[in-house]
C-alpha cells in the first residue's frame, strides 16, 4: 500500500497540468459569457492559440512574445465573433460553431509545416520554499510559469467580476442589458470588449498545450477540450473560483485515465478516455435549474443579441 | 421649466407622434392621458433619449438641449420608470441604484448608498430594504426601487409610465402620497395613464393625446372625467356595460384541492377549490404572479397538478389531454398574447383555425387542410369579430394588440364553449378593444358558458364578475361580492393582509 501515496500525488500533479489549459479556456469564456455572448468557438480559439504561440516561439525563441501572439490571434478571432454576434446579430451558436471550424481549419493549414519541429518551451520551475512543502509542493509548485499565472488569474478575476465596478457593469450587461443601457452603459462596447478579451485568454489555454503540456504542434491537439470547457463554464456557474475546481476535477479525470493505463489497470483505455466527456454530460444535467441561475446571477441574456429599438 | 416643441416621430408605417408640444412646469404633476398607441410612451421615450425625434426641439429652462441617450437624459435631471422594470435581478437594491453612476469607485462601497436610500425612502414614504436582492422583491417594491434610483441621481423630472397598472389600491395610494411629497420638493412628475379616476386624483394639468396628436392641455380643476374620456377616445364612451343577470345553471367547471408547481418547481397554486356554474362569471382577483398563470394553465391541461382534480360538466378531466378538453368545450384566452395565444408568424387565418383540427368546425380531409373552407370561414370570423386586418393572410404579429385579442376571442369563442378561462384578457388593450372583450365575455355568459376571469384590475372584475375570489400566494384567501364598496377590502386581500375576507 505504500505505492498509493506517490500514485495519488503524481495523479494530482498531473491533474493540475491537465487542468490548466481548461482553466484558461474557462476563465476566458466566463468573461465572454458574463457579458451575454455565448461562445461555442472555444475549440477553434484554443487551436489557433496553440499554433500561433508555437510558431512565434519557433521563429523568435521568445516565450513571452509567443503568449502575446497567441492572445492576439485569439483576440482577432474574438473580434470576428463579436462583429457577427453583436453588430450583425447573427445567431451566437452558429457564429460560435463557425469560429470552431475556422480555427480548426486555419490551425491545421498553418501547422502543416510545423509538425515534428521543436520550439522553445515552458519548463517546470520549482518555487523556492513552497515546493518543499510535502505533497502540496509537488502537486502545486513544480510547474511551468503558465500554471502559476493561472493561479494568479483566478482570484484576480474573481475580485474583478464580483467586487469592482467594472465587474458590476459586466454582470449587469449580461443579466439585464436594458437595465444597463438605461443607466448609460454602452452595452455594445462592453460586449465587444469582453468577447475579445475573453477569447484572448481562452487562446492562452491552447498555447499552454503546444508550449508546455505537449511541447509540440499536433493537428487537432485540443481533442475536444474546448467543448469540455463550455460545459465547465456552466458547472462553475460563471464563477472563476469554482472554475478552478472544475478544471482540476476534469484534469484529474483525464490524468487518472493515463495513470491507470500506466500501471496496467484492467480497464479498457477507451473507457478511461471517455471519462471526462461522460462527466461533462452529468455536469450539464445537474446545472440547469432556474433557481440556481437566478441565485448566481447567470447571464440571463446569454445567446440573445441586444437591440435598443427592437419590437417583438 | 421643460418644453417639447413640435415633436414628431415615425416608425415604419405609423406616425407615432405628430407635431406634439408639451410644457412641464416645475413642481407639477402633469398627466399624459390617452389610449394605447396614442403616443404617450413614445413622446416620453424621446424625452428620455431612448428614441430620437424626427423633428422638433426640446428646451430645458429655455435652453436647447439634445438628448441622445438615457444617460444624457439623466445628466439633464430627467429620469423615467419604464413599464418593464429595468433592474438587474441578482444585484441588491443598493447596487441597482448606483449601477453605471460616475460616483462609483473602482471598488464600490455600498454602505453610504444604503444610508442614502433609507433617507430617501423615509422622506418620500418609499420604504425598501437596500440590501435585498432585486429578484426577491415584489412588483410594488421593484417600482419603489425604480423611483428611488431616479431620486438618487437628484433628478428634477420624473416620468412614470403607467405606474399603477401593477399596483393594488393601497400601493397606488402610497405612490400618490410619495408623488405629492416630490411636488413639494419642486420635482416635476409626468404621469402616463389611461385610468381616469387616478388622473383626476393626482394631476395638476392633463395633456390628452389621441393617435399621435395632442388634443388639448387642460387644468384638472377645469375639467371632468366625462370630458377627458371624450377627448381621449374621440367619442362618448359607454360608461358602463350593463351587467346582465343570467340565471345560473349546473356546475360546469369545478376545481378541487388543486396544487400546482411553477416552472422553478415552487408551489404556485396551493390547495385551490372553486366551482363555476353555467351562466356565471367567477372573477379571480390578484396581483400578477400569485399563481394565476399556473392555475389557468393547469385547468386547461398544459401543466400537471401535483394534487387535486379538475372537472368539466361533472367529468373528471384531471388526466385528460388538452385536445380532449377542447372537444369537451373548454376554451382558454391566455395572458401571454403573443407567446401563447397566437403564433405571431402565421397568418390571421391560420391562427383562427389553429385549433380546428381538434374541433372540426370546418369539414376537412384528415391529412390536407381545406383552404377554401378555411378562407371562407375566416372571412366570416373577421367580419363577426370586427377584426381590423389588411387581409386574412396577414401575419398575426402585424396586428395591434386589440385585434390580436379579437383573433384569439374569435378562435376560442366561436365554437360555443361550455367553459372559458380568460387570463388578463384586457391587459394592454385600449378602451375600445376593452369594451369589445367585455361585451364578448358577457355574451358567452348569456349563452350559458361558465367563465373564469383572472384579472388584477378591480374595475374590470366589478363590471364582469358575479362573484370575486381573491388569490394571494397561490391560495384563495377569500370571496367578496363585486361591489365598489368592497374595493378596499379586496385590495387588502390582494396584498396579503389576512383575515380581511369572508369565508365562502
Topology:
The complex is a heterodimer of chains A (312) and B (504).
Chain A (H helix, E strand, L loop, with lengths): L3 H31 L7 H19 L2 H25 L4 H20 L13 E2 L9 H5 L1 E2 L1 H19 L1 H11 L1 H6 L4 H27 L11 H11 L4 H23 L6 H18 L3 H7 L16
Antiparallel strand pairs in A: 1-2
Chain B lengths: L1 E10 L2 E11 L4 E5 L6 H8 L7 E6 L2 E3 L4 H6 L2 E4 L11 H6 L12 H14 L14 H14 L4 E5 L7 H16 L3 E6 L2 H7 L2 E6 L2 E7 L5 H9 L17 E11 L5 E11 L3 E5 L6 H9 L6 E6 L2 E2 L5 H6 L2 E4 L3 H5 L6 H5 L3 H4 L11 H14 L16 H13 L5 E5 L7 H16 L3 E6 L2 H7 L2 E6 L2 E6 L6 H8 L10
Helix pairs in contact in B: 15-16
Describe this structure as you would to a colleague.
The complex is a heterodimer of chains A (312) and B (504). In chain A, 71% of the residues lie in helices and 1% in strands. Chain A has 312 residues and is mainly alpha-helical. Chain A has one domain (4-123, 144-296): Orthogonal Bundle (ABC transporter involved in vitamin B12 uptake, BtuC). Chain A has a two-stranded antiparallel ribbon with strand order 1-2. The longest helix of chain A is centred in the N-terminal third of the chain and has 31 residues, at 4-34. The model of chain A has no long low-confidence stretch (mean pLDDT 89). Chain B has 504 residues and is of the alpha/beta class. Chain B folds into 2 domains: 2-233, Rossmann fold, CATH 3.40.50.300; 251-494, P-loop containing nucleotide triphosphate hydrolases (Rossmann fold). Chain B is built from 18 helices and 20 strands. Chain B has helices at residues 40-47, 70-75, 93-98, 111-124, 139-152, 169-184, 196-202, 225-233, 292-300, 322-327, 337-341, 348-352, 356-359, 371-384, 401-413, 431-446, 458-464, 487-494, and strands at 2-11, 14-24, 29-33, 55-60, 63-65, 78-81, 157-161, 188-193, 205-210, 213-219, 251-261, 267-277, 281-285, 307-312, 315-316, 330-333, 419-423, 450-455, 467-472, 475-480. In chain B, the strands form 4 sheets. A 6-stranded mixed β-sheet of chain B has the order 6-7-8-3-9-10, sandwiched between helices. The A-B interface holds A 163-166, 168-169, 171-172, 175-176, 178-185, 289-291, 294-297, 300, 308-309, 312 and B 50-51, 69-72, 74, 80, 82, 84, 86-91, 95-96, 99-101, 104-108, 135, 263-266, 338, 344.
